[in-house]
Specification:
Mean pLDDT of chain A: 91
CATH superfamily of the largest domain in chain A: Tetracycline Repressor, domain 2
Number of helices of chain A: 9
Oligomer: homodimer
Structural class of chain A: mainly alpha
CATH class of the largest domain in chain A: Mainly Alpha
Shape of chain A: globular
Low-confidence stretches of chain A: 193-201
Chain lengths: 201, 201
DNA sequence: ACCTGAACACCGTTCAAGT
DNA sequence: ACCTGAACACCGTTCAAGT
């Protein structure tokens, strides 16, 4: 039978889940699908593009529910929560999406960026800075989650030394950093509204 | 003559500067040094460790001058400025340091983290959260700079479409995101001091 | 249109054996 | 102690040729 793009992406995702990003190679994927390596290049221009498709598969659940409701703070929190959850649902998910985002290969990651930008605008951030505020949130989220996930995997593999103050309560820790950014965005708003620097404690 | 660790790191750095991270392979490095690939494994356990040494070479200029002076805001700004400058001074510097940091192979990156943590503590962030605040800054810095640098390189390679609002005035854009984080840290302080949420605009 | 076979030009790492 | 030679087990990508 014919090989379809979506079969390839599905096989790639299960390779990722079962063996991790290091073992997600074009050759191994071809072997799994019982085709020759060259066959994949009929459907995808290169590996980056294929990984981008896997990234978008991982990100599919993001932004499907309530993330359009509430004020700008609620929307940032819920979008980020969904995004983090999606990344944590696949082995090396954060690393893969991070790489695809950096390479400009993930359409859905751009969508997330747009929604965060809108939220930042609504918070009162100047239009020229809204996307940057959104990116700041995304850089944090990807860095934090990739870190968290690699520690989890080390941990599951039985390495000690890793289980410090660091590995416990990752959701609360994640929320703390996100709060920092949200407070920063709110402060930026005040600059604009009050035309004066925020009062120091 | 004998091969020394520091010769290897130096050759690796010049390979990086001239050809980029994709061409920084153990085999190519060995060829450049006119030794067999196996020789490198006498001096370094693996490629990751060697890249960590290159990362620390890149980071050597960070924190050598005035970055211990001033209040906590000044110290964060100057440490981050020096760090970003060091990364931009080498082809793919941000990507390489980012990878080494994630792999826990850069001693100097840990030092930077410590200094940012101290600054955050001084700002009034609770001890348990100070390192996290520092990490948030580092995740932002690495994400932003890697992005900036890859655009610069695309741009220098003659790609258009890249030169949008995005590529202009990167230092001002960097400062904006950093300000967001600093304001967020300051707001966190207020929570602690006033024991009440920050007033909304 | 879609895929195979085979090649090209590489990788990181190990290790017996040499000096 | 330090390095070579050679091997092991892989990579991503291309492309003439087949169906």
């Amino acid at each position: 039978m014919q090989l379809h793009k979506r079969d390839v992406v599905e096989a790639a995702t299960s390779l990722l889940d079962n063996y991790g990003i290091a073992d997600l190679s074009m050759r191994r994927l071809a072997r799994e699908l019982e085709v020759s390596p060259g066959a994949l290049y009929w459907h995808f221009a290169n590996k980056q593009q294929l990984l981008g498709a896997v990234a978008d598969r991982i990100l599919a659940p993001v932004g499907t529910d309530d993330s359009a409701a509430g004020d700008w703070r609620d929307r940032i929190v819920s979008t980020c929560g969904q995004l983090r959850e999606a990344l944590l649902s696949h082995t090396d998910g954060a690393e893969l999406v991070s790489a695809s985002f950096a390479a400009g290969q993930s359409k859905l990651m751009s969508d997330v960026l747009d929604r965060l930008s809108t939220a930042a605008s609504e918070a009162g951030v100047a239009p020229a800075n809204a996307e940057l505020a959104a990116r700041t949130v995304v850089y944090y989220l990807l860095g934090f989650t990739a870190d968290e996930q690699s520690r989890m995997q080390w941990d599951a593999a039985g390495a000690d030394v890793v289980r410090t103050v660091w590995t416990e309560n990752p959701s609360a820790r994640f929320a703390f950093g996100l709060r920092l950014l949200i407070d920063g965005i709110a402060a930026e708003t005040e600059h604009v509204l009050e035309k004066t620097p925020k009062v120091r404690a």
